[in-house]
UniProtKB/TrEMBL annotation:
The modification N6-(pyridoxal phosphate)lysine is found at K193. This is Cystathionine gamma-synthase. GO terms for biological process: cysteine biosynthetic process via cystathionine; transsulfuration. Belongs to the trans-sulfuration enzymes family. It comes from Frigidibacter mobilis. GO terms for cellular component: cytoplasm.
Length: 371
């Protein structure tokens, strides 16, 4: 069955009375039923996979999947897979929030964190040679420069060194990349973003190539109280029904915008452009296009700020994946200690007409002094 069909009907879901919308069950306490064992407290989650987790697993081609209360809680749960005393190799030019979260969390857990450019396989191999690495943490693509790692080769290096490979595929989503099919052990998603697609849910997910780690991750989720709440799960299922259509539209618009910006002489970061440094790798690994996010450079922070301030259709906000298109000068968002270029503008493309977004950017660029 095609993913489009699976999601449109939510795997032929029924509410038990003929309704075609999954029921919303909010109870946190359940009375024991005759002849059945007592139900646990809702913080523990379901005994087996929920409908949402089954669908998430099928999206990623995974053995199993787990839903969490946020992308950050899913990320922290993944650290439970790393034995004490080992190290985590993290993409150096990746999502800044996770860099901070993981720096604090690894220190508390007795793990060490090292940063490396995941597109530099020699550097990765050199760090793995220590024999201490338990987890290689890549992003596909890296946010906000959208660099593209070679997942099959990263997987080979990690496994040869006795480490797991986790790939944060939030920005690409399973519509464009299925990391487990390229050798990854874990795929991470901030389901808050494109999987939900409506800007009204906090959720995260881990998809696993093998189900053996599921009990440990479930226990971590119970212990930390990070089970996804029923209403969030219900909203995420609703959002997934239109996932493929939304990704097709947003990704096609992003590709058009990237080409339009490049034609105006701006430096554009987008894996679908022929001059992207890993374009050949992107073509070999992406499916269905190259995603709905891109960045471009303006030459100075002041010029970038002027563009961000002048747009009318784009919304000035920091996130990804909702119906509205978002714009930000990324270094301003990240603040002190940012590794992001000061003049870089990040765009997350939504569902507006491409012509309106192009016109909006054109109008903003026209406000800049010439020369």
């Amino acid at each position: 069955m095609k993913i489009d069909t699976l999601l449109a009907g939510l795997d032929a879901v029924s509410d038990g009375a003929g309704g075609l919308v999954p029921p919303l069950r909010l109870a946190v306490t359940h009375a024991a039923q005759p002849g059945a064992p007592a139900s646990g407290y809702a913080r523990s989650g379901a005994e087996g996979e929920t409908l949402l987790e089954t669908i998430l697993a099928r999206l990623d081609g995974a053995a199993t999947a787990l839903a969490f209360a946020s992308g950050a809680s899913a990320a922290l749960a993944a650290l439970a897979l790393v034995p004490p005393g080992r190290e985590v190799l993290l993409e150096a030019e990746g999502y800044y929030e996770f860099r901070g979260i993981l720096a604090r969390a690894t220190a508390l857990r007795g793990l060490s964190l090292r940063l490396v450019d995941m597109t530099d396989l020699e550097a990765v191999a050199g760090m793995l040679s220590s024999g201490r690495t338990g987890l290689v943490w890549a992003e596909f693509p890296g946010n906000p420069l959208w660099q593209v790692p070679d997942l099959p080769r990263l997987s080979g290096l990690a496994h040869q060194a006795g480490a797991l490979l986790l790939v944060d595929a939030t920005a690409a989503t399973p519509h464009h990349i299925r990391p487990l099919s390229l050798g990854a052990d874990v795929a991470l998603h901030s389901a808050t973003k494109f999987l939900n697609g409506h800007g009204d849910v906090l959720a995260g997910a881990l998809a696993l190539a093998e189900s053996a780690a599921r009990p440990a991750l479930m226990q971590h989720r119970t212990d930390t109280g990070t089970t996804l709440a029923p209403f969030g799960e219900w909203l995420l299922l609703r959002g997934l029904r239109t996932f493929v259509l939304r990704m097709e539209r947003a990704s096609a618009t992003a590709a058009r915008l990237a080409g339009w910006l490049a034609d105006r002489g701006l430096q554009v970061h987008y894996p679908g452009l022929p001059d992207h440094p890993q374009h050949a790798l992107a073509c070999a690994q992406y499916t269905n296009g190259f995603g709905p996010v891109l960045s471009f450079r303006m030459g100075s922070a002041a010029r970038a700020d002027a563009v961000v301030a002048a747009v009318q259709v784009f919304r000035r906000a920091t996130s990804l994946g909702s119906t509205e298109s978002l714009i930000e000068r990324r270094a301003e968002t990240e603040g002190a200690g940012t590794r992001c270029p000061e003049d870089l503008i990040r765009l997350s493309i939504g569902l507006e007409a491409a012509e309106d977004l192009i016109g909006d950017l054109q109008g903003a660029l026209d406000t800049l002094p010439k020369g």
